[in-house]
Design a protein that fits this description.
Layout: H1 10-26, H2 29-67, H3 73-93, H4 100-110, E1 116-122, H5 128-141, E2 145-151, E3 162-166, H6 172-183, E4 189-192, E5 202-206
Parallel strand pairs: 1-2, 1-5, 3-4
Antiparallel strand pairs: 3-5
Length: about 210
């Protein structure tokens, strides 16, 4: 229980003093002085504690206003919403890249059944070359024979950013390529390997970011 929840009212204090007055009046003067001093100290301590609480509250309010430049909670919420929207816009135009964990996942899954893979990208994808380089490096580290190229003037009506083309008759290597992309949490559409690359186990096509 907090000290201020157990305080006596003024009427209760007066009534208590009235009941105890015969005892107090019969006590030595020095004892009365000691009681008065103790009471004063307690009152000052309580007053200081209460004042400290108020000061701390005022400091917190002042710090809040400084950090938010005097904005109200509603204005602060609006400001945060705008910042989050701006971050989403920047993320939408930032170049795509594979993180270390994704690259490691491709290498780990690709090692299970190395084969031949061909990776190409649409020239409309400004970050396609960098993504292609990352994928080529990852599959080569997994023991694959990896090569690639780019498509000039690719499709305009694509609906996926990555497409994985596999032969009609799946091979262990083609299945490993699928597992590699899935393990790296790369969303892709499935297609059939083109006749231009009959000797590869898998093809990856990189298209521009879908916004």
């Amino acid at each position: 229980m907090r000290w201020y929840e157990n305080r006596m009212g003024i009427d209760e204090i007066i009534d208590r003093l009235a009941k105890e007055w015969p005892v107090i009046s019969g006590a030595p003067f020095s004892f009365i002085i000691a009681i008065a001093i103790v009471g004063t100290v307690i009152w000052l301590a309580l007053r200081w504690q209460y004042g400290a609480r108020l000061t701390h509250r005022d400091d917190e309010i002042a710090a809040y206003k400084r950090k938010l430049d005097g904005a109200s909670p509603d204005e602060a919420r609006l400001h945060i919403d705008r910042l989050e929207a701006r971050i989403r816009q920047l993320e939408a135009i930032a170049p795509r890249t594979l993180g270390p964990e994704q690259i490691e996942a491709i290498i780990e899954a690709g090692r299970r059944a190395p084969g031949r893979i061909y990776i190409t990208y649409d020239s409309a994808a400004s970050d396609g070359g960098a993504l292609q380089a990352q994928l080529l490096q990852a599959f080569r580290k997994a023991g694959w024979a990896a090569s690639g190229n780019f498509m000039a003037g690719g499709e305009d009506d694509y609906v996926h950013e990555f497409v994985l083309n596999l032969p009609a008759d799946a091979t262990p290597a083609s299945l490993a390529a699928r597992t590699a992309l899935e393990s790296a949490k790369i969303s892709f559409a499935s297609g059939q390997r083109s006749d231009n690359n009959p000797d590869v186990d898998a093809e990856i096509v990189i298209f521009a970011r879908i916004t």
